[in-house]
Amino acid sequence: MIVNSHENVIEVEGLTNFHPQHIFECGQAFRWNWDGKGYIGVVADKVVRIVWDDKVLFIENANLDDFFTIWLDYFDLETDYGEITNVLSEDPMVREAIKYGWGIRILKQDPWEALVSFIISANNGIKRIKTIIERLSCRFGKEVLWQGQKYYTFPDIDALADADQAELKDCGCGYRGPYIKETAKLIREGQVDLSLLKTMSYKEAQKQLLKCPGVGPKVADCVLLFSLDKSQAFPIDVWVKRIMETLYADELRYSNGIRSFAEDRFGVYAGYAQQYLFYYAREMKIGK
């Protein structure tokens, strides 16, 4: 990997197993949007555009310090996905899925943003999830200007803990509004400490997240996988359930359920397998 900087644009060469479309369209993050040139996203208080020409990754509105303190980790660029895909390709089903999502990387997102985002995701499609998050950010976040456009940071814990329920409803949160507000209060009061979850085991961290209103096993696993480095987490939504029941029907008859099967089958790489299978199921409309 070769990294250069020129006029507030980072250029990264030598990447493999990397493609922005696969990364941003696989359901793990909701604040990245295609603008005709690349994907524009807001991470913390940074607005960047990600452009990929099949050889070089361009990160616009970023310098070298940003790259090494934020983007290197955020895009998981130091993880060897070649090794991961080689191991997972021993399973013929996942090997086929990798052909469709070979460029997926699991983003290392902020746990607070991931937690709220996936509470919102319950019984919602991706387009609507993105709309609600954008409304929340516009109302409760901080304004950031870039190239004459206004963008907004994700709301902090205090902002949503103190939010009026009517305001949350206006943003489209629906029945999830009280969950978001109460979860923010739990975290502010220290009953759930997000900063400690990375140091806990997968099961311990999952138990802590399940204390939060609106958080069940699927939402907890999403937060654990996409923000807390728990690569054995295996979130099960409708698409993953369909593809697992379609591709592993015989094996599942002799298991204790999909999650248990995935843990036994894929081990510490279960989360990576989930992302390849999820993207493949959606692209191929499996089980629809």
Task: Based on the model shown, name its key terms.
single chain; 288 residues; alpha+beta; TATA-Binding Protein; Endonuclease III, domain 1; two-stranded antiparallel ribbon
Protein described:
With 288 residues, the protein is α+β, with helices and mostly antiparallel strands. It has three domains: 2-78, TATA-Binding Protein (2-Layer Sandwich), CATH 3.30.310.260; 111-227, Endonuclease III, domain 1 (Orthogonal Bundle); 238-284, Endonuclease Iii, domain 2 (Orthogonal Bundle). It contains 15 helices and eight strands. Strands 1-2-6-5-4-3 form a six-stranded antiparallel sheet. Strands 7-8 form a two-stranded antiparallel ribbon. Strand 5 (46-52) and strand 6 (56-60) form a beta hairpin. Helix 10 crosses helix 11 (217-227). The longest helix has 15 residues, at 126-140. The chain is globular, with a radius of gyration of 19 Å. The protein starts with a strand and ends with a helix. The model has no long low-confidence stretch (mean pLDDT 93).
Distance between the termini: 40 Å
Within CATH, the superfamily of the largest domain carries the name Hypothetical protein, domain 2
- How many individual β-strands? 8
Fraction in helix: 40-55%
Query: Quick one: overall form?
Result: globular
Task: Quote the beta fraction.
Answer: 5-15%
Give the number of helices. Answer: 15
Structure class: alpha+beta
Low-confidence stretches: none
Order of helices and strands: EEHEEEEHHHHHEEHHHHHHHHH
Order of the strands making up the biggest sheet = 1-2-6-5-4-3
CATH topology of the largest domain: Endonuclease III, domain 1
Mean of all residue-level pLDDT scores: 93
Under the CATH scheme, which class of the largest domain? Mainly Alpha
